[in-house]
Amino acid sequence: MVYITEDLIRRRAEHNDSELFSLEELSLHQLDIEKIEHIDRWCSKLVILYLQNNLIPRIENLGHLKRLQYLNLALNNIEVIENLEGCESLQKLDLMVNFVGHLSSVDSLRHNIHLRDLCLMGNPCSRFEGYRQYVVAALPQLQCLDGTEISRSERIQASHSLTEVRRRIQEEEKEYLKRRAEQKEAERSKGGEESGGLDGSWSTDISTAVDSLEEKDQDLQEKLRSSEAAMERQEQEFWQKPCAFTPECRLEVHRHLQRKRKAKEKKTEKKEKCRALFGDNGQVLNINEPKLNFHLTEDEENNTVVLDLAVYRHMDTSLIDADVQPTYVRVSIKGKIFQIVLPAEVKPDSSTAQRSQTTGHLLLTMPLAYGEIKGNRTIPHQRRACQSRHIPQLEASERKNVPERLEVDPSKCSSIDFTNIISQQSSREGRRKTPPSSAASTSEEFEDNPDVPPLVLEFA
């Protein structure tokens, strides 16, 4: 049973920013509602109200809707027209295909002085002899009945023959009420047996067969087949069985369809739960339910794994959900699972997902967790050629991969000592530089003139 709640009305009032106090139009059709409640208190400014195609048996809780002009209660289980006197502004009332057998209850609409259009087509009272004459004479404010305008001559004729028509209507009402009481009694006596056969017998067998199918194989498959055959047989018998046009039969059909829908939902839920994403040993399975083309490659230069999934071009991106794990990737495309095992472990946090605007493909780029680190190659610095005769010897030794040995004794070192080129005394006296010591002896004619600057040797 569906109840009229505040949350339901707010969801149906999206066009009015979900505000109830200023709501003027409300649509609550095809919701299996069985009782009218709370509408007159929460939405007192309603002008249009749609309640068609529900299971409402009685008109109630609408008396405070003073501004209501159009009320649609077609395809319900209403048997009496009542409780509409407070709807002062009511102009159109639709009660098509209900179970109104009390045609005299139309007299309650005399208080609705603004009522112009009434529809009672498909009700038992519409088959009464003199039905139209009675309604036209009982409601002088009407301008249209069952989609047909009321002419002036028809109204005059109906008013002249009202006494005779009312007598016939009362007799037909008594016969209808008698048949209706018998139908209610028959439904009560057969209610237990029929509800048990429709509710429990075959539906319970199906559920037990399906549940036990997981435990055994061959025996339970036979039970399942027999239960499915019984279900089909029960279904055919139900729809081929003649039934009376009563509210009870309509409720029975509705409950039968509701049970069938719930059983179908349970089967789909079980199928979804039984979807195997992992093997018995916990290994990840490769799944391609949407049957899409894909390419899984390794980019060695960037140390990444690239997945190119050929998603449909015109599919909305909101219907795609990608989940990257260290060892596998799972993509949900409109509820269908695509899952693939990766060739190496990746970093989910550093992965990226892109969608092509031209082809619609989904591109997942996943860096490797333990990728090869490739540094930049450095070009060795070429040494400048030196004029000294010792450097070519060093280069030759390097080419021959001969290890160099440092001489500890300074007297055995044949290279020039560049650290003693400038004496400590000359550096103190104005940073004068003296030439390095030479192995040759100084001549006797040499004069040391302090005004002449010392000779400084430069080495390239």
- Return the string of H and E elements: HEHEEEEHEEHHHHEEEEEEEEHH
The description of the largest β-sheet is:
7 strands, mixed
Helix content: 25-40%
What portion of residues belong to β-strands?
Answer: 5-15%
Structural class call reads alpha/beta
Number of strands: 15
Alpha plus pi helix count: 9
Kindly provide the radius of gyration, computed on alpha-carbon positions and rounded to a whole number of angstroms.
49 Å
Distance between the termini: 103 Å
Outline the low-pLDDT stretches. 195-213, 372-379, 381-394
* Arrangement of strands in the largest sheet: 1-2-3-4-5-6-7
| Bulk shape | elongated
Explain this structure.
This protein is α/β, with parallel strands linked by helices and 460 residues long. It has nine helices and 15 strands. It has helices spanning 6-12, 39-42, 131-138, 152-160, 162-213, 218-240, 247-273, 391-399, 424-428; strands at 25-27, 48-50, 70-72, 92-94, 117-119, 144-145, 148-149, 287-288, 294-299, 304-309, 320-324, 328-333, 336-341, 352-355, 362-367. A seven-stranded mixed sheet has the order 1-2-3-4-5-6-7, covered by helices on one side. It is elongated.
Essential attributes:
single chain; 460 residues; alpha/beta; seven-stranded mixed sheet; four-stranded antiparallel sheet; 9 helices; 15 strands; 13% strand; elongated
Q: What is the topological layout?
A:
Elements: H1 6-12, E1 25-27, H2 39-42, E2 48-50, E3 70-72, E4 92-94, E5 117-119, H3 131-138, E6 144-145, E7 148-149, H4 152-160, H5 162-213, H6 218-240, H7 247-273, E8 287-288, E9 294-299, E10 304-309, E11 320-324, E12 328-333, E13 336-341, E14 352-355, E15 362-367, H8 391-399, H9 424-428
Parallel strand pairs: 1-2, 2-3, 3-4, 4-5, 5-6
Antiparallel strand pairs: 6-7, 8-13, 9-10, 10-15, 11-12, 12-13, 14-15
Helix pairs in contact: 3-4, 3-5, 5-6, 5-7
